[in-house]
């Protein structure tokens, strides 16, 4: 008796005729390309790879690249910044989408958004395999990315270690991925916060979140020292105001939460991991409702200052750090 094998869909077939990578996160876009190329070369070691920018794909170029070969070789054609293709070239691509060539995989990298949306819609309508590559602007997204990096290698890292790595490295996804790979290669067993501190002490101490942690704990001198170090090592001022705001808001949220609630319940209600609930609990001693309000006003003023509203961003940050540290001691 013959058993029908499940049909592979375009979504999970790396060698689907068309792959559409959508987003603005360069690392994820590059990984989407690398996965397709690796699959193609696994199927045929002599696969021909053509990697083109949008301005290199002129009208007629795609037809030349996808024309039948005497040797029937496998080919991967990569088009970067597809949203910037000229109108005539978009017509060529849409025509190709209607009848893709065999043994050829077309990979379109598109930023998403309104520009070039017609091509995006056409590729989706044609059944292209789609890979989401969104920009990871939020700290929570980068934290999830780090966790996923460790999971992908089958390794275990504590929540505190993942957070410490994000705090230390910042927003550069390539550096985060590289740091995860280095820790996995060098460390046996579970990766914890002490390991991250040992590898990235200098960077961690200069991070925006360290500045915020010291400030909300009322340790003004240490916060200012961390701030000057952060500025000297190139941490963007907007990241520091963002971390300060996040630290003060976390204290405000926890202060207004029901007393006696379990960390797990609070975590779900406030949108924080349980370990962070414990950290914020320790930081909130000495804070009052008026102190939270005053600190948020000071951070808002600093944020406006570093975004062009003031002549000296560093002074604006120092002023905010002192104000937050003072607010941390507002409860008599």
- Helix-strand category: alpha/beta
Query: What's the number of helices?
Result: 15
What is the first-to-last residue Cα distance?
A: 82 Å
The level of helicity is: 55-70%
Integer average pLDDT: 86
If you compute it from the alpha carbons, what radius of gyration comes out, rounded to the nearest whole angstrom?
A: 25 Å
Order of helices and strands: EHEHEHEHEHHHHHHHHHHH
What does this structure look like?
The protein is α/β, with parallel strands linked by helices and 332 residues long. It folds into three domains: 110 residues, P-loop containing nucleotide triphosphate hydrolases (Rossmann fold), CATH 3.40.50; 49 residues; 122 residues, Zinc Finger, Delta Prime, domain 3 (Up-down Bundle). Helices cover 58% and strands 8% of the residues. The protein is built from 15 helices and five strands. A five-stranded parallel sheet has the order 2-3-4-1-5, sandwiched between helices. The longest helix is centred in the last third of the chain and has 21 residues. It is elongated and about 75 Å long.
């Amino acid at each position: 008796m013959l058993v029908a094998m499940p049909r592979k869909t375009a979504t999970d077939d790396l060698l689907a005729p068309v792959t559409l990578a959508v987003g603005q996160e360069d690392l994820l876009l590059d990984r989407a390309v690398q996965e397709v190329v690796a699959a193609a070369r696994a199927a045929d070691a002599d696969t021909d790879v053509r990697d083109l920018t949008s301005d290199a794909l002129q009208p007629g170029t795609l037809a030349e690249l996808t024309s039948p070969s005497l040797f029937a070789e496998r080919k991967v054609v990569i088009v970067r910044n597809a949203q910037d293709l000229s109108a005539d070239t978009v017509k060529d691509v849409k025509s190709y989408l209607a009848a893709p060539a065999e043994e050829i995989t077309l990979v379109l990298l598109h930023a998403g958004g309104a520009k070039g949306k017609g091509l995006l819609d056409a590729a989706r309508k044609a059944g292209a395999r789609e890979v989401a590559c969104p920009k990871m602007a939020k700290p929570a997204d980068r934290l999830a990315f780090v966790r996923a990096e460790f999971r992908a290698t089958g390794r275990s890292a504590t929540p505190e270690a993942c957070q410490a790595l994000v705090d230390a490295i910042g927003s550069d996804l390539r550096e985060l991925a590289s740091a995860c790979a280095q820790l996995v290669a060098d460390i046996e067993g579970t990766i914890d916060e002490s390991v991250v501190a040992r590898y990235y002490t200098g960077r961690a101490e200069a991070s925006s979140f360290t500045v915020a942690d010291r400030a909300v704990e009322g340790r003004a001198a240490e916060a200012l020292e961390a701030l000057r170090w952060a500025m000297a090592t190139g941490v963007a001022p907007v990241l520091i105001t963002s971390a300060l705001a996040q630290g003060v808001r976390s204290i405000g949220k926890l202060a207004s939460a029901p007393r006696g609630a379990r960390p797990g319940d609070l975590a779900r209600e406030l949108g924080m991991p349980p370990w962070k609930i414990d950290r914020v609990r320790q930081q909130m001693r000495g804070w009052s409702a008026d102190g939270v309000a005053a600190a948020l006003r000071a951070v808002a003023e600093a944020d406006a200052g570093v975004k062009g509203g003031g002549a000296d961003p560093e002074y604006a940050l120092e002023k905010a750090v002192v104000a937050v540290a003072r607010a941390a001691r507002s409860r008599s």
